[in-house]
């Protein structure tokens, strides 16, 4: 099925946050049912690793709330609870050292991967995790611009709207 979201391609944790968006002033949520979960799993490249069922949906919604809490207020308790469902096991193979993701209850795998991804983003550059600056936009993005000053999830949509509104506000 087609992913209806206006912004795709962010790191997994932020992509999960972006399953909520505004369309024509109306809040939208891709994860209202298992069909939407299936769309997100496919879009995130996880369809072959997870099942779109009610248990996975509940776990993913828990992770989405936990990630949002960290990004918005640095509240980390719920994220740590999601991370308790898995671990990275270090092992040595014939090919060399390897990190093996170990999530015993596979219904938590997408949620755990998204939470783990947030840890990587926080370790790499926490100040580059941003919410779009447009007042009506709820989307998040990871700023990969050279100087780290990106303000909108998309210059083509929210950036242009903001600049156009500012321009027309200046006209007499």
Kindly describe this structure:
- α3 runs antiparallel to α4, α3 runs parallel beside α5 and α4 packs across α5.
- A hairpin with an 8-residue loop joins β5 and β6.
- The chain is 44% helix and 16% strand.
- The radius of gyration is 18 Å and the shape is globular.
- The protein is an alpha+beta fold.
- The strands form three sheets. It has a two-stranded antiparallel ribbon with strand order 1-2. A two-stranded antiparallel sheet has the order 3-4. A two-stranded antiparallel sheet has the order 5-6.
Summarize the entry for a quick read.
The chain has 172 residues and is α+β, with helices and mostly antiparallel strands. 44% of the residues lie in helices and 16% in strands. It has 6 helices and 6 strands.
Q: What do the pLDDT scores average to? A: 92
Radius of gyration, taken over Cα atoms and rounded to an integer in Å: 18 Å
Strand order of the largest sheet: 1-2
**What is the distance, rounded to the nearest whole angstrom, between the alpha carbons of the first and last residues?**
47 Å
For the largest beta-sheet, the strand count, sense and barrel status come to: 2 strands, antiparallel
Low-confidence stretches: none
Level of helix content?
A: 40-55%
Number of helical segments with 4 or more residues: 6
- Could you give the order of the helices and strands? HEEHHHEEHEEH
The portion of residues forming beta strands comes to 15-25%
Q: What is the number of strand segments?
A: 6
- Shape verdict: globular
**Broad structural category:** alpha+beta
């Amino acid at each position: 099925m087609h992913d209806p979201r206006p912004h795709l391609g962010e790191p997994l944790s932020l992509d999960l946050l972006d399953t909520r968006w505004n369309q024509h002033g109306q809040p939208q949520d891709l994860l209202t049912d298992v069909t939407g979960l299936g769309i997100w799993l496919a879009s995130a490249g996880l369809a072959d690793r997870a099942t779109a069922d009610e248990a996975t949906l509940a776990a993913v919604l828990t992770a989405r709330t936990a990630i949002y809490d960290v990004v918005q207020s640095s509240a980390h308790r719920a994220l740590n609870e999601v991370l308790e469902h898995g671990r990275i096991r270090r092992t040595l193979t014939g090919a060399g050292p390897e990190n093996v993701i170990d999530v015993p209850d596979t219904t938590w795998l997408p949620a755990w991967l998204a939470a783990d991804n947030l840890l990587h983003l926080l370790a790499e550059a926490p100040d580059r995790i941003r919410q779009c600056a447009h007042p009506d936009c709820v989307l998040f993005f990871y700023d990969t611009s050279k100087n780290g000053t990106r303000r909108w999830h998309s210059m083509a949509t929210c950036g242009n709207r903001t600049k156009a509104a500012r321009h027309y506000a200046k006209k007499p």
